[in-house]
Input
Amino acid sequence: MKILEVGGSGAIFTDKAGPVSTVVSCLSQYLARLGHEVTVVDVENRFVKRQVPPNVRVLEVKAIPRPNLPLCTLRAIKLPLNELMSLKNELKFVRGFMSSHLKAEPFDIIHVHEVYPAYILEHFNKNKPPFIVHTSHTPTWADKDNRMLSIHSRVIKNLTALKEKRLIKKVDLAIVLGRYFEKQFKEIMPCANIAYIPNGIDTTLFHPLDKIEARRKLGVEEKEFIVLFVGRISYIKGVDVLLEATEILKNKILNLKVYIVGSFAGKFGKGVTSDYAKKMINIADKKVCRFLGFVSNKKKLNLLCAASDIFVAPSRFDTQPRVFLEAMACAKAIIGSNVGGIPDMIRDNFNGLLASPNESADLANKILGLYRNPGWALKLGERSRMIAKEEFNWDEIAQRHEEEFLKLICR
Output
């Protein structure tokens, strides 16, 4: 098959790649290993150096990388203006490779990872093949709980839902990252072609390391009981729930330390510190909690995982957070909320524990249980590593994509 993977961040095959760009990088490489002709199209970015596998071709198009797109902050007009600026930039990006390559090259599959480019390609692509495939990476609009959202946030959520629902009905195949989303989308859109394929993890990049040695390299004391959180500092990630649990535990767990790794901007990457992040930093017990900021270096993340005792992420809602797979690959016991796509990774009491969302007391009890039974925590971690290698390895994930792509071509 001739497959076109559509990016747009400007960071694919670089050390600046975020979660979606990492997926595009890995999936492209493993599809090429299966013998397919894979081309990746991304935004030209002269500030980063790409490390492209020899069996994958990269096309670069002039447009603004999505993370660098200037955004309006004036509350009254930022929603329509930012949407308009985003759409304009995506049109420039898509037209850049449509005019030069799509007409000249007979691709079988165009796999798109963002909503607007998928919309544009679906609108202009009238002939089959190529078939348009869209992976829904962040359908947070599928969360039915709107109680804590402002009116402005509800408007954004409803508009996002409207856009992506219409897109999923139109594309030839929509890929979702969790069984929760597969079930919900099929109920909402029974005529849509939907497949569940999770993202994968490179278990050679993230792997177990000696905990004592990892702590020595990071300058961490051996006696500390370290709870690690990785994720952007935002309300939906439940950092406040973790801090409330920390208050309950700080007098029950000797030498408790909570390492909080993630962007203060409320989004992937660096940026202006959000009001929520400022509040979390202010209310956190400085003797217990350490905010380490955004860490993009994979080796340092692996070290932090290795140095920790358990991994915790009490999200209020989530799709398939890559940080869970990274912690699993590092053989860590994990605690996550029983929401969205998280139960596809955590088998309760087998490789980790599922906590009730928004329940700091329940989270604290589960952390305390692992602290009091370190042998159990180690066993859960071993099983996490096993699941990561068997079910979320990129060879398996690429083969599942291949199967779904072939179904489109052969139907």
